[in-house]
Amino acid sequence: MRRGLNANYDLVTFFDCLHDMGDPIGAARHVRESLKPDGVFMVVEPRAGDQLEENLNPVGRIFYAASTMFCTLASLSQEAGMALGAQAGENRMRQVAHTAGFRRFRRAAETPFNAVFEVRP
Predict the structure, then answer these.
(1) In 47-110, at which residue ranges do the beta strands (DSSP E only) sit?
(2) Structural domain boundaries of the chain?
(3) Tell me, what DSSP letter sits at residue 78?
(4) What is the pTM (predicted TM-score) of this model?
(5) What is the pLDDT of residues 74-116, one digit of tens each?
(6) What dotted CATH number matches 9-120?
(7) What is the C-alpha to C-alpha distance for residues 83 and 23, in angstroms, rounded to an integer?
(8) Using one digit for the tens of pLDDT, what is the confidence trace for 4-14?
(9) Is there a contact between 102 and 37 (Cβ–Cβ < 8 Å)?
(10) d(C-alpha 58, C-alpha 14), whole Å
(11) I want to staple 4 with a disulfide (CB 3.0 to 4.6 A). Which of 10, 33, 46, 56 is the partner?
(12) Pairwise CA distance, residues 104 & 52, whole Å
């Protein structure tokens, strides 16, 4: 992994934004290149199940509506336009992290609205 000139961060945090990015893999890769070898990337994302059925609840319905109106459109307006949306789910977030060069990924905490992921090289 190529290390950037500023590869000296212990912690980088993203709050409710990775799913909105047109190129979330590129953004995560940049974080990976900016971290110290023992650094942590903390990602807070909407708490979503990996399957549609897991999201058919009041919170999931609100997230689907917001995703349709804001999240997916924001991503599609950018160059890569991956369009993960607010209901990307843990498995999709794990894929993004692993593709970006991270090897360790775990759900560190959750609330009814958010999941907190600890991502490490």
Answers:
(1) 104-110
(2) 9-120
(3) S
(4) 0.89
(5) 888 888 878 887 788 999 999 999 999 999 999 999 999 999 9
(6) 3.40.50.150
(7) 9
(8) 566 799 999 99
(9) no
(10) 25
(11) 33
(12) 26
Q: Using only the alpha carbons of the chain, give its radius of gyration.
A: 14
Give me the long-range contacts of 82-85 (CB less than 8 A, separation at least 24).
82/21, 82/22, 82/23, 82/24, 82/25, 84/18, 84/19, 84/24, 85/19
Query: Hey, what are 72's tokens?
Result: 């997916």
Output DSSP code: residue 57: S
Distance CA 48, CA 36 (A): 30
Cα 31 to Cα 11, 22, 51, 64, 65: the distances in Å are: 9, 15, 28, 28, 29
Sheet bearing 104-110, strands edge to edge: 9-15, 35-46, 114-120, 104-110
Amino acid at 42: M
